Amino acid sequence: MSNRFTYDDFSMQGLSNAFCEHFDVPMVDGSIKLDNHIARINMQSLTLPGDLEVVFLDYHYHENFIYEHIAGKEQRFGLWIDCSQTGSPNIKIDNKKIGNEGPKYNNAFLMNAIFPYKQLRTKGDIGKSVIIFLPPSFLEKFLLEKEDGSILGKFYMLQNERYFFLKLSEVEVKKIDSFFYQWNTHKNIFSIIKYTFQLMEWYFTKLSNSFGLLKRENTLSPQQAVDLYLLQKLINDSLSLPNIDFEGLDHGVITPVLELKKLFEKVHAKSIHVYFKESKIKNGMKLLTNTCKNISEIAYEIGYANPSNFSASFKKYYNITPQNYRKQLLVK
Amino acid sequence: MNFIYDHNDYRKFLQDLAIKTSGNFDGETFTFPPDVGEGTIRLIEMPGGLQVLISDFKALSDFSFKRIASLPEIFVLRVDYVELIGDTHVLLDDTAFFPHTSVYANMLMTSSRFNYGIVLHKGTTIRSVNVLFTEDWIRKYFSTYDVNYWLKYLHAFRLKRINRIPLDYEARKSLFDLSEFPSSNPSYLIFTQTRIFELIDDYASQILRLESNNKNIEIMFMDVAKIIELDVLINKNIEDKKPLPSIDQMAVLANMSATKLKSLFKKMYNQSISDYFNNCRLSTAKKVLLNDSISIKEISIQFGYKSVQHFTTAFKKQFGETPAALLKYETH
Question: A60, A267, B107, B316: most buried by Cβ count inside 10 Å?
């Protein structure tokens, strides 16, 4: 038992089994009760009509705690709703930090099991979470629009940008409270179904409204989206190299590489070359700001063979040379 | 025309109805032929295999539906809002219910062990939702706790007890929303299903409430009818932005004493008459706020609030957000 909980099977069964195993607690009628020096957690699993699986828990952490989902190969979706009344958890999806600032953390997001997910809970954190696992049968039937491509395809589009975090209004926070109240006092399954559907309706209606902003031709098929994600990952991993080695892609992706490159350029509205160069420069900017490394070192680190090339590109992008930028920083 | 059936398959019901009336059934929607009625009956297949019928039509000739008792036992939740004309009536186990009023607004659970029928006089309008529950369905989703607990209530109506629940303002709203939401909207399915689960939960929660009060509340059928008539009338007034009448005025409208009116209201809706209508007024104001572009100040004047402050405070108490905050959130 450690303060780091990891699991890789993103499903109701997978999550609750891993939880029982990690904390060495039993599950009775879908209910898990943990009360030790790390945390007090009541977790309940339920299967609802349409093979929807719901896990809901209230928690009080006594120590800092890391909660980690290891990226899987299979796409599985879950709507993750979290109302923390105290701390704001430090959340990383796909190794990027996300989440809001402020004392309360009331958010929902659609999680895809192919992305790694990591949450740091701070000592003293109290709150409630509801996780609705959406089986493929459910998604196919309820979220796929007939003509306009799939909601999922559009969803991937947004993944790159903002993971589609939605802040809960007080109305939804109240619903979460009623959800737990109904379960704890009446065990009224109809109320649980109602609140689950109301929360999904709220999230997917908002999501679907935002899709209005996306152009139809930007819709991706789920396969294209996964492949695009792999390409993005390859580019990010290559930022310290002089060039991108596209041969690394051959093993993983199904979409033809040429088509994938075109898709990427459409999504980001710039060529891969420009995107790659700009990302490098942004990286260089970070290193300039946050480290004491000299400019040649930085240039080598971000894959420039010649520091003067870096300086020139930097100036073109930020309209200031790295040397002057450093000087300005030092003055401040 | 008399339409008689003895099974519990709504698809077959609509197919047969289309043959009998020469109406049109396209697999989802039955449309009345002009000589019989005006409007539709829609079939919705809910998650987990629940069959639901949504009716929204006006009878243009006299006709009746009658279901002959059959086994295995199946339960039907009937949510009806009927604007009655002439001798329109419901037949429960061959006993006729003549409301002698202008509206019939009830939630009612019937069992296939008994005959059920509805006789419609020309000009009657109906909005209704019928949900078909099999015992298997109930057993499956109630496996987490005592199934018999619930089945007991479902059977309770045989003793003609705690089965009929008057349709309150919120339930009527869910019912009306169902017939008005366009099926071309991408959120159609999730919207429809959420409304249906709300109605089911409303019924279940009220049955639970009546049982947990452990009082055998007997309300005369005529009194229920009077209250519903009054309720509908006052809500129409609210929508027309007429001021709320005093309780004494309402008592005159309902043709009973103010004391009796207050106590009946409390029994039927589990809240005081003034709370109930104030909530109705707030919900209507909320709808106007979100749909029409009228300022909060204007709304508070139109709906007869003393001041904007008064309106804002009441709104926040009911919905958890101030009108301004909700508007900002919803239109964001």
Answer: B107
Closest alpha carbon within chain A to B147: A189
Tokens of B246: 């005093």
Q: Rounded to the nearest 5 degrees, what angle is found at the Cα of B79, between the Cα atoms of B75 and B84? A: 125
- Interface-testing mutation among B146, B191, B198, with chain A (most A C-beta atoms within 10 A): B198
Alpha-carbon distances, residue B164 vs A157, B131, B144 (angstroms):
49, 15, 27
Tell me whether residue B237 is exposed, middle or buried, using C-beta atoms within 10 angstroms of its C-beta: 0 to 12, 13 to 18, 19 or more.
middle
Label residues B80-94 b or e (16+ Cβ within 10 Å = b).
Answer: bbbbbeeebbbbbee
* Sign for the pseudo-dihedral over CA of A130, A66, A106, A139: negative
**Local structure of A39: helix, strand or coil:** strand
Kindly list the residues from chain B whose CB atom is less than 8 angstroms away from the CB atom of residue A193. Answer: 141, 197, 200-201
Residues belonging to chain B with any Cβ–Cβ distance to chain A shorter than 8 Å: 46-50, 137, 141-142, 144-145, 186-187, 189-191, 193-194, 197-198, 200-201, 204-205, 208, 319-321, 325-326, 329
How does pLDDT run across A123-172, given as a tens digit for each residue?
888 889 999 998 877 776 655 544 444 555 555 555 544 456 777 878 88
Distance CA B36, CA B22 (A): 9
Q: If DSSP codes are grouped into helix, strand and coil, which group holds residue A55?
A: strand
Q: In what order do the strands lie in the sheet with A77-84?
A: A27-28, A31-35, A39-48, A52-61, A126-134, A77-84, A105-112, A166-167
How many Å apart are CA B196 and CA B54, to the nearest integer?
10
HSE at residue B266, side-chain half, CA atoms within 13 A, is 8
Question: How crowded is the C-beta side of B104, counted as CA atoms within 13 Å?
Answer: 26
Do the Cβ atoms of B325 and A30 come within 8 Å? Answer: no
Q: Are B66 and B116 within 8 A, CB to CB?
A: yes
The answer to whether A26 and A3 are in contact (CB under 8 A) is: no
CA dist B174 and B77 (Å) reads 15
pLDDT at position A149: 45
- Side-by-side strand order, sheet with B24-25: B24-25, B29-31, B37-45, B51-59, B125-134, B74-83, B103-111, B165-166
Q: Is B304 left (phi over 0), alpha (psi -120 to 50) or beta?
A: left
The pTM of the full predicted model, rounded to 2 decimals, is: 0.73
Q: What is the ipTM of this complex?
A: 0.77
Chain-chain contact of A201 with B187 (C-beta, under 8 angstroms): yes
Average pLDDT over chain B reads: 82
Helices (H), chain B: 10-21, 135-141, 147-156, 169-180, 188-213, 221-239, 247-254, 258-269, 273-291, 296-302, 308-319, 323-331
Q: What's the CA angle centered on B256, arms B255 and B258, to 5 degrees?
A: 125
pLDDT tens digits for range B195-220: 999 998 888 888 777 766 655 556 66
3-class DSSP assignment, residue A30: coil
Report which residue type is found at A292.
C
How many residue pairs from chains A and B have C-beta atoms closer than 8 A? 92
Q: Least CB-CB distance to A193: which of B197, B319, B320?
A: B197
Q: What is the pLDDT of residue A147?
A: 43
Q: How many CA atoms lie within 13 A of A18 on its CB side?
A: 17
